[in-house]
Amino acid sequence: MATTALTGFSMMSLLSLGYLTWDLMSPNQVENEADQTSANRPPVPGPPHIIFIMTDDQGFNDIGYHSSDIRTPVLDKLAEDGVKLENYYIQPICTPSRSQLITGRYQIHTGLQHSIIRPRQPNCLPFDQITLPQRLQELGYSTHMVGKWHLGFYKKECLPTRRGFDTYFGSLTGSINYYTYDSCDGPGLCGFDLHEGESVAWGQRGKYSTHLYTQRVRKILASHDPQSQPLFIFLSFQAVHTPLQSPREYIYPYRELENVARRKYAAMVSAVDEAVRNITYGLRKYGYYQNTVIIFSTDNGGQPLSGGSNWPLRGRKGTYWEGGVRGLGFVHSPLLRKKRRVSKALVHITDWYPTLVRLAGGNESLMEGVDGYDVWEAISDGKESPRLEILHNIDPLYNHARGGSLQKGYGIWNTAVQASIRVGDWKLLTGDPGYGDWIPPQILPGFPGDWWNLERHTRPRKSVWLFNISGDPCEHFDLSEQRPDIVKQLLARLVYYNRTAVPVRYPSEDVRADPQLNGGAWVPWIGDEEEDSWDRVYQKKSKDWKKKLKLSKSRSFFRRLNTRIMSNTI
């Protein structure tokens, strides 16, 4: 547990928010009191308590041990005393990462391989998937989720409390106001989004979500007996996703940062850092710590337009470059055999499912069909990772690259299709991987919006890239022309995976989801007895290339327009 307090914060202001509970004590007093409280309890045998902390849109360069401008003393100390995962992969956007964590399966095996689940889409995590919390319930765990769900809610059967969590407190959509909990899915399509179980939590407006979620976790820890039953908490912070909102106390230490977005973003990261300190203190105070595994992970790369940074990696959130898919991650636990080290073992977000089920006492039968691997020995003992490759994704619905073709894929694969895979040291991308520039930390107050489009205009259009990602993690040297033999091998792996893919679930939006038709809140709007008709709504066959090209140009125009607006705002 970290003992270094953040400097420059108004402790009395934080106390007035009901956030800090120990700020009148010195750091050593905090540590000593927690250790004494924990020492008075007998050791807890059996399966470990599991605390999984996920942040939203936190970039590779947005933590103290990677960054020079963001201070995260608590996270840094936990990582230093545990195992830093420096070869850890996630997905480039929110829904896919959460679905893969919860199911242990690649997107192509759940039908969620395209985009995110929008608030008005009648879509959610497939009902035939047995989730991680459901497996942990079978193994005797008390399971709780706090924070952002973003895995669909059109039916009550989609809700967290129906998918394995004993309790739930948080938001169902992808982005909300940190104080009012309003969420918008377009002009005039706004509603309240904070839920207690399966009910709307109207009475919590005005409380900063990072603080509110932390208080709920502390309440769970205080009310549960760590000796009677193992505990699983999935804390899915809304932070540091837009909108950029933070109490002033956290902004003040970053007053010298010229870039306003970066300043606010850094403040939000610091708020998360203090929240994690609050939680780890609670673990010690209530007798959990000695038998607890803490996992920290971000859900995707950072968004530089909103203050995030993935430097020195290439790309950003929403792309299959390393800046979009290489994640921040570490494990902290007294149960680790080899601590205080950096792990280069290849780990993917799907691996947490079998790893945690195994830690909880489960056997192979409970992990049948998952795409993840049990990586506990690689993390705890420093052994080789059992994982040799990662399918980042195959998205048949994403805009096809104009320069791609089956011919350019050596007759093996249509390189117009967006896909990415890593096998050993090699990483292959096809189609349009997304914006692929290297974006240094933002130090200027603002920048012209057109800068974001320079890479698109100056680089020749390609549809195949190959990198030796171990030797070139920043993806500077494309070796696709020098190593066609490797390209062909990886294209063949894409073909193999594509044969196992299920149809894409991406239905049209449903007007019945409008919050104004549902009491002003985002809630389930379809009865559980109403049948789904995926065959009608998800298939997207398009032989009309002119119409598709026109739509692509329209999207490109609005993307550029939005970029300029965001730039001017910043």
UniProtKB/TrEMBL annotation:
Listed SUPFAM superfamilies: Alkaline phosphatase-like (SSF53649)
Cofactor(s) named in the record: Ca(2+)
Domain Sulfatase N-terminal, residue spans: 48-361
Entry keyword set: Calcium, Glycoprotein, Hydrolase, Metal-binding, Signal
Signal sequence annotation: 1-18
PROSITE patterns: SULFATASE_1, SULFATASE_2
Iron recorded as keyword: no
A GO molecular-function annotation: metal ion binding
Family the UniProt entry places it in: Belongs to the sulfatase family.
Name of the protein: Sulfatase N-terminal domain-containing protein
Source species: Mola mola (Ocean sunfish)
